[in-house]
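User: What would this chain look like folded?
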Amino acid sequence: MRQINRHPQHGMRIMLMLLPFVLLIAAWFVGSTLRLEANPHDKLLPGLSQMLSAIDRMAFTPDRRSGEYLLWADTLISLTRLLLGLTIASLIGLSIGITAGVFPMYSAALSPLMTVLSMVPPLAILPILFIVFGLDELSKVMLIVIGITPMLARDLEQRAKEIPAELFIKAQTLGANSWTVVLRVVLPQLLSRLITSLRLMLGSAWLFLISAEAISATAGLGYRIFLVRRYMAMDVIIPYVIWITLLAWLMDLALRQLHKRCFPWAEGGRA
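Assistant: Here's the prediction, encoded as structure tokens.
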């Protein structure tokens, strides 16, 4: 049988899914053990006990200065910034996507603009954001908004243009005006696509958040990572990175379940 026709069974699929993680973790602990045997004060590859101690210190022991549990406080602040940025970007991207995708007159102006804006590297304009919006929360949220809104708008515009023209003709034949077509025909299609697009852009949104927090912040997951790097505190950095990855994965899972629940027709009958 050709390799392209071979599909793993359920058990094999789970084993193949876990295998890279197991190998990665095993390689880490082998490397950590060897380095710690050579130098017990080595900080580059901390052992499991060191990382558990750091997690206990950051998550379950109040900070001496602030009295806060730093991991949870950083998580709350970062998630607030991230969710605020994603919400604003979704509303703007959806509005522009509908306008450019449905109304040809507006598309002539908006499509080239979104194309150009999507090519601007968001991190390159971070200094401009700090100058314009200051060093407070607004600049961090705006980096997320500016970073993902153009891509979101272009994706939704393209999806709107892929809606069969027969649906528009049928709706207008039944007496629907432009806004009725938007609300009854276009919006359900784009809301489904919006969730899928957000899932694909979660990684970029986290990247922009961590970058902004690393440069100018007094709290947050990105701020904490870049603060403790001065002391080569890998026992703190690695759990923070794993925690961020877990949060991103949970957000992706939540969006996937939301998509299945709200738009089962877009799942191809599998929901």
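Residues 178-215 form the longest helix (38 residues). If you want, I can go into more detail on any region.
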